[in-house]
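Sanity check

After download, print the first record. It should look like this:
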Amino acid sequence: MAYIRSKKEELTGYQASGEIRPSVDLGCDFIMVYGIDPTMPERIRQYREKGYVIHLMTGIAWGEYQEYLDGKWDGRKHWDEGQVDRNGKDVIHNPTVPYMVPTVSFSEYLTDRLKVAVDAGVEAIHVEEPEFWDKSGYSEAFKREYEIYYKELTVLGSYSPSPADLKDSFDLLASGKVNVKGLTTVYPLDKIQQAFDDTVANKIFKAYIKIAG
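Expected structure tokens:
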């Protein structure tokens, strides 16, 4: 009897993605029902009837979102909203689960499903793994959402230029089509600390340290 307490203390709990069954009915205080697929309301009901305090957990960048991807949610397929790297390769969690671009549409889908969870009686929501990778801003969906939010065009650079890239760059500079005046500030070697300080303070765009001459 000493161990009987109110479940409202929520001292113990676990995560479960399936329906309740004897092997997972551990009698903890709370359960994190995992995932927002169409089975979610029924899974919530089952655990609530067993006396659990109900939480919900779902991935915010990936998950079993097939109803969204396949167009069952709004009548339009959304497979084009997966993340893509600079080489055009899909960035995926597994072959049927892409890492998603945080589009307005995807946000609306998540919001809609989380409302269903709230209506079903969850008392807390945990969104996990916001894996929006810096290497994967190259899909058309990402470019579209970036322009919508920031009102800016996307300019792609190159961190490992080929000879062809360099030739194009030199041609643009020579033609005067690209104005780079003011982008680089030159510092003598004995002013290197000033160069670091100005860079950190956002006073300059890029510092160039002149070693000699």
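If your output differs, re-run the checksum step. Summary of this record's structure: The first strand starts at residue 13 and ends at 16.
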